[in-house]
């Protein structure tokens, strides 16, 4: 009996018990679809998160003011105090003080209302310097970005995010227009290229003005020189740790703090965010895949169950085939093939359902699902393997039946 | 494979050219500590082209003898040569091959696979005999033609009468041109018309040269053979040529 014939016989046997084969296949199908979906969801989320985080800019260190650690070890005041100044940013930009820091961009941001004619829109207005564009990895779609001249002359110029431009003017072609913030007119000199959102932060809904202009006309506050965030860009990923150390030492010195545990600022790195998020999602993916694998195991037990029923039911057939000259291995092969046909059918259908669900889910859930060929191919192989593994015991039992006993069975 | 030559003077020449040769065969079944000797020393020679009926009541050892002759079971002591080959020493895989090449079975229960059309049932022994598909089909259809069911080749067993099903089974038994056709109560499940039908088919096979061993407990059926062997209490009680 050739493999093809064995396969045909197996397929025939599976089809002649359509209902119970379908139910068995369903068990495998659900398991495989679940594995493909969970793996895809895990990969997709991971991808989303790293994309969001890396959209902040590359090799970035983020310095935020005001972290203090109390005697009890409670860290408080993160980002709430104005301990960072423009002087700090200038010091960090110095090559002698921090040789591994390639770029520095301080931000002084506030949420405020912008008016354009009768339209108004509340957004984050960021006061910063020319280096912001490079450090944050952004580009200008139209017009220009801020210049050093804008900074020194405290020019009333503004660069709009594409979202903000659309909200105010209904278009992004707004260079040369005028907007009003707190009664002061600003000339729109450029529009940023769209970047997408980073978590809760819409990177496209923003407005950029010169730091000096922001300090004098918009943000004000207790200290005109206070900044809300300083972004540091390391020259390369390898220099990230060195840049971190240099910045910490420099800022501790500048702030006259000797004990690093009572630092009034916090430096976090984008890589740390990525790796934290990645490990969280990896754990989640493993957990979900584990659950999906359990359902596959249950499906496999279903295959074994149905194969045992099949062997019992077909005892006479087995006896007859043996009497007609089928050696034990031929019987074993027949039942193994039958079990793997169940597995294969479940695997293929499960892959189809999984892939279709993966295409349909993102629009329903809003998170992306990455269907990897490896996951799909692997699942189908696993499904066949499950059929084989769980078919071994029933097939061996069938092969061991003595032909006379099998023939006499009712 | 032994040639199934037509020999008019079969019985006279039988001992010289035996298909079946049993010498001092015993078979003991063990269930725990209880031993039961089903055959207690059987000598039997059946020649090429003979038509032998084996008779005996239930528990006589008749079924055990049939299982041994069919290589479905192994003997405890003694020797069994089938077409000159000692089958006493063979393992399960070799026995399967012997059954496949040397023996055609006809069972009381027909034992056709209900999901397969008649011709697929008939070709089954050839499937396990590694015969190419095209030749299998040709020979299966030929065998069906011999039993007069050429027009029913595509029907499944469920669509055939009991007599027709048993004729399909006979076709399956002879498709591999075996040295021995072993029929175990072939008419036990049939009405009188079908019984006559199947028995005359066996007569035809015999006339054409097949060696047939028929196990039965019905005297009417046994009378169709040319030699009757009676088994009682695990021994051969009588062995007579009736025609």
Automatic annotation (TrEMBL), chain A:
The residue ranges of the MacB-like periplasmic core domain are 21-249
- The keyword Transmembrane appears for this protein: yes
Q: Subcellular location, in the record's words? A: Cell membrane
Q: Which residues cross the membrane?
A: 21-43, 286-311, 335-357, 369-393
Give residue ranges for domain ABC3 transporter permease C-terminal: 291-402
Ordered alphabetically, the record's keywords are: Cell membrane, Membrane, Transmembrane, Transmembrane helix
Protein topology in the membrane: Multi-pass membrane protein
What is an example of a Pfam family matching this protein? MacB_PCD
Q: Which family does it belong to?
A: Belongs to the ABC-4 integral membrane protein family.
For this entry, the protein name equals ABC transporter permease
The species this protein belongs to is Cellulomonas alba
Organism classification, top ranks? Answer: Bacteria, Bacillati, Actinomycetota, Actinomycetes, Micrococcales
TrEMBL record, chain B:
Q: Can you give the residue ranges of the ABC transporter domain? A: 20-241
The chain's coiled-coil residues are none
- Offer one Pfam family short name for this entry: ABC_tran
Q: Please, which domain of life does this record's source organism belong to?
A: Bacteria
Give the UniProt keywords, A-Z: ATP-binding, Nucleotide-binding, Transport
GO terms (molecular function) for this protein are: ATP binding
Which Gene3D superfamilies does this one have? Answer: P-loop containing nucleotide triphosphate hydrolases
Q: What is this protein called?
A: ABC transporter ATP-binding protein
Q: Which organism is it from?
A: Cellulomonas alba
């Amino acid at each position: 009996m050739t493999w093809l014939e064995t396969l045909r016989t197996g397929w025939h046997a599976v089809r002649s018990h359509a209902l119970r084969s379908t139910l068995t296949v369903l068990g495998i199908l659900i398991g495989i679809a679940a594995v493909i979906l969970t793996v895809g969801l895990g990969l997709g989320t991971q991808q989303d998160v790293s994309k969001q985080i890396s959209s902040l800019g590359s090799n970035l260190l983020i310095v935020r003011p005001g972290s203090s650690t109390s005697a009890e070890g409670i860290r408080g005041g993160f980002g709430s105090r104005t301990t960072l100044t423009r002087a700090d940013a200038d010091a960090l930009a110095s090559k002698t003080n921090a040789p591994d820091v390639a770029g520095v961009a301080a931000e002084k941001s506030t949420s405020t209302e912008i008016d354009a004619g009768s339209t108004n829109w509340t957004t984050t207005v960021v006061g910063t310097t020319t280096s912001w564009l490079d450090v944050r990895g952004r580009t200008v779609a139209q017009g220009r970005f801020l210049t050093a001249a804008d900074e020194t002359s405290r020019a009333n110029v503004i660069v709009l995010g594409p979202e903000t431009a659309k909200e105010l003017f209904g278009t992004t072609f707004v260079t040369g227009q005028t907007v009003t913030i707190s009664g002061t007119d600003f000339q729109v000199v450029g529009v940023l290229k769209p970047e997408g959102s980073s978590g809760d932060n819409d990177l496209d809904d923003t407005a950029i003005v010169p730091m000096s202009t922001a300090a004098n006309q918009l943000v004000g506050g207790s200290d005109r020189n206070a900044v809300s965030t300083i972004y540091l860009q390391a020259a390369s990923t390898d220099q990230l740790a060195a840049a971190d150390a240099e910045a910490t030492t420099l800022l501790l010195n500048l702030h006259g703090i000797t004990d690093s545990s009572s630092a009034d600022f916090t430096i976090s790195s984008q890589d740390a965010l990525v790796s934290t998020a990645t490990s969280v999602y990896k754990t989640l993916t493993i957990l979900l895949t584990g659950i999906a694998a359990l359902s596959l195991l249950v499906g496999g037990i279903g295959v074994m169950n149905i194969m045992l029923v099949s062997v019992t039911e077909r005892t006479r057939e087995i006896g007859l085939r043996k009497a007609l000259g089928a050696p034990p291995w031929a019987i074993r092969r027949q039942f193994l093939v039958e079990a793997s046909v169940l597995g294969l059918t479940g695997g293929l259908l499960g892959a189809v359902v999984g892939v279709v669900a993966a295409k349909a889910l993102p629009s329903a859930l809003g998170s992306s699902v990455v269907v990897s060929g490896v996951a799909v191919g692997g699942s189908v192989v696993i499904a066949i393997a499950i059929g084989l593994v769980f078919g071994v015991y029933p097939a061996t039992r069938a092969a061991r039946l003595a032909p006379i006993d099998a023939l006499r069975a009712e | 494979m032994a040639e199934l030559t037509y020999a008019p003077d079969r019985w006279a020449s039988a001992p010289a050219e035996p298909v079946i040769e049993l010498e001092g065969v015993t078979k003991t079944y063990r269930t725990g500590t209880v031993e039961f000797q089903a055959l207690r020393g059987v000598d039997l020679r059946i020649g090429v082209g003979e038509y032998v009926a084996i008779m005996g009541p239930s528990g006589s050892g008749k079924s055990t003898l049939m299982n041994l002759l069919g290589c479905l079971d192994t003997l405890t002591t003694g020797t069994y040569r089938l077409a000159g080959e000692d089958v006493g020493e063979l393992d399960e895989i070799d026995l399967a091959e012997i059954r496949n090449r040397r023996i055609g079975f006809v069972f009381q229960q027909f034992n056709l696979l209900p999901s397969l059309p008649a011709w697929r049932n008939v070709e089954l022994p050839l499937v396990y005999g590694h015969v190419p598909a095209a030749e299998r089909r040709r020979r299966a259809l030929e065998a069906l033609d011999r039993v007069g069911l050429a027009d029913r080749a595509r029907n499944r067993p469920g669509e055939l009468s009991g007599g027709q099903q048993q004729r399909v089974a006979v076709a399956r038994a002879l498709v591999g041109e075996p040295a021995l056709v072993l029929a175990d109560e072939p008419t036990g499940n049939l009405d009188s018309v079908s019984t006559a039908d199947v028995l005359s088919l066996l007569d035809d096979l015999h006339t054409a040269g097949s060696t047939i061993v028929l196990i039965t407990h019905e005297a009417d059926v046994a009378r169709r053979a040319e030699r009757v062997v009676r088994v009682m209490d695990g021994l051969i009680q009588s062995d007579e040529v009736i025609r």
